[in-house]
Amino acid sequence: KSSFMRTIGVNLVLMYAGTYVNAKQFHAPFMRIFTSIGVQDDISRGISTFYGELLRIKKVLDYAGNTEENDIPFIVFIDEIFKGTNYNDRLFGAKAVVHKLAEKHCITFITTHDFELCEVPEKKVSNYYFTENYNGDQIVFDHKIRSGQCKTTNARYLMERIGVISPSN
Questions:
Q1: Quick one: pLDDT at residue 121?
Q2: Is residue 16 domain-shared with residue 67, that is, in the same domain?
Q3: What φ, ψ does residue 88 adopt, rounded to 5°?
């Protein structure tokens, strides 16, 4: 999910720079790009991972709130929204962000492992997912995007395979 999202963002930048993109075809209008990807804490500035995420997403929401003053459309990439906090607060905050961005004229990509976030009732929200197959001890990804909500996980399989948990857990 994250790699797919990053690839779209990188291709946008490459296209805007007038160079080659990594795609058979790629068309998009000029858009401002906002990201919340790979946010880390900054101990020297007293910023936790979660607070760093909040600051980045606040910039997006501030820009979204001023779209009447700015004719440039925008695209948002948020990887694992609010990963720096607990499940309940993450879900509460993420739903609020999805709702606010769904009201605006923007394209938003949000990756998540939280199934409940995929159940937001926004009409302008669509879910997409990737899936995998298992070949012996290997996970094989077909890298095909599918419409809808993912209903499967591979985390337990990986935890068992690595030996973090036993198959009986």
A1: 80
A2: yes
A3: -65, -45
